[in-house]
Design goal:
This is Uridine phosphorylase. It comes from Maribacter dokdonensis. Its EC number is 2.4.2.3. It is an enzyme of class 2 (transferase). The protein has a single domain, classed as 3-Layer(aba) Sandwich (Rossmann fold). The chain contains 7 helices and 15 strands. The protein has helices at residues 37-43, 79-94, 153-163, 179-182, 218-224, 239-249, 272-287, and strands spanning 29-33, 48-55, 58-65, 68-74, 95-96, 101-102, 110-119, 129-137, 173-176, 190-197, 226-227, 230-231, 234-236, 252-262, 267-268. The strands form 3 sheets. The protein has a 5-stranded mixed barrel. Strands 5-6 form a two-stranded antiparallel sheet. Strand 2 (48-55) and strand 3 form a beta hairpin. Helix 2 packs parallel to helix 6. The longest helix is centred in the first third of the chain and has 16 residues, at 79-94.
C-alpha cells in the first residue's frame, strides 16, 4: 500500500513534516526530553555531534558517545506532541520515503524519556530518580488507535471505582514499560514507580491559581489508590503516550523521572538543573 501525500507529509528537502529530519539523521537509540533547551544539556556529554536540527519545539541532536550513536529530541509538553514525535520517528525507520510504502524489515527503536515529575507520596524525596514501571494515562490517546492486549483492564477498573471516575472523561488506560530496556537502568539509586500522565499542569493536576479545579478531591484519591500493593507514585505529562505508541509500533520504551516536586509535602527542588544533570549522566553512563 502506498501512503498518500496527506497521510505521510514530506517536506521539499525529503524530511518528515514536523521533526524536519531525514531517515539518516536519527540513531536507533533515542532520548526524548520535553524542553528544547535540554537537548543541548544532554548532547554536551557526547564525544561528537553530527546532526543539529530544529523546527518548532522539536529539536534534535545526533552524535556519538564512547562509540555508540545516540539521538536526543525534544518533544515539547503533552501526549498530543508525543503522538507527532513517536509516529514520525517510526516513519523515519520503517517507511520508505521514496516509494511511500512500509519497509519489509521492521526496525525497533530504544526510546528513553528523561523528564521531570512531581511525586504524590510523602516518602518519595525531591531530587530522587524514578523509573515508570507502569503508567496510567488520563489523556485518551490510546483510544484513537486499534489495540488489543497491551493495557491492564483490571487495574483500570479498580482505579475507576476508587476515584469515582466521571463517565464524561476519557477512560484511563494502564501500560507497562519495556522490561528489556528497563533492566538497563536497574540500580539502587532509582526506584520503580507507577506514573500518572495528566492532560495539563494546573487544573488536571489539581493546582489552583485563579480557576478552581473541578475535582479537588482527586489528588487524595490518586495518592490513596492501591492495587495489589501497586501504588501511584508521581505525576507528569508524556509517559503513557510514549508507552502506548511504542508498544503499538514495536519499539522499546522506558521513562526516567527526576522528582523535582513533592505534592504531598509542598516541597520543590532548590537545585533542579543539577538534579536533572545527574539523571542525564546516569542515563548516558548506562547507554554507552
Amino acid at each position: 500500500m502506498q501512503l498518500k501525500p496527506a497521510e505521510l507529509v514530506i517536506n521539499e528537502d525529503g524530511s518528515i513534516y514536523h521533526l524536519n529530519l531525514l531517515p539518516e539523521d536519527i540513531a536507533t537509540t533515542v532520548i526524548t526530553v520535553g524542553d528544547p533547551d535540554r537537548v543541548g544539556q544532554v548532547s554536551r556529554f557526547f564525544d561528537t555531534i553530527e546532526v543539529r536540527k530544529g523546527k518548532r519545539e522539536f529539536h534534535t541532536h545526533t552524535g556519538h558517545l564512547n562509540g555508540k550513536r545516540i539521538s536526543v529530541i525534544s518533544t515539547g509538553i503533552g501526549t498530543d506532541n508525543i503522538d507527532i514525535v513517536l509516529n514520525e520517528l517510526d516513519a523515519l525507520v520503517n517507511i520508505d520515503f521514496k516509494t511511500r510504502t512500509l519497509k519489509k524489515e521492521h526496525t525497533s527503536l530504544n526510546i528513553i524519556r528523561i523528564g521531570t515529575s512531581g511525586s504524590i507520596q510523602p516518602n518519595i524525596p525531591i531530587d530522587s530518580f524514578l523509573i515508570s514501571e507502569y503508567a496510567i494515562g488520563f489523556d485518551g490517546l490510546l483510544h484513537f488507535y486499534e489495540h488489543n492486549t497491551i493495557n491492564y483492564p483490571e487495574i483500570e477498573e479498580s482505579f475507576i471505582a476508587h476515584t469515582s471516575w466521571h463517565k464524561t472523561k476519557a477512560r484511563p488506560y494502564v501500560l507497562s514499560y519495556s522490561k528489556k530496556l528497563g533492566e538497563l537502568f536497574t540500580d539502587n539509586r532509582i526506584r520503580l514507580g507507577f506514573t500518572a500522565t495528566n492532560t495539563g499542569f494546573y487544573g488536571p493536576q489539581q493546582r489552583q491559581l485563579r480557576i478552581k479545579p473541578s475535582q479537588m478531591e482527586l489528588m487524595e484519591k490518586l495518592s490513596s489508590f492501591s492495587y495489589n500493593d501497586l501504588q501511584l507514585t508521581n505525576l507528569e505529562m508524556e509517559t503513557s503516550g510514549i508507552y502506548a505508541l511504542s508498544q503499538l509500533l514495536g519499539h522499546e520504551a522506558v521513562s526516567l523521572n527526576c522528582i523535582l516536586a513533592n505534592r504531598s509535602t509542598g516541597e520543590f527542588s532548590t537545585t533542579p538543573t543539577a538534579s536533572v544533570d545527574k539523571l542525564i549522566e546516569f542515563c548516558l553512563e548506562r547507554l554507552a
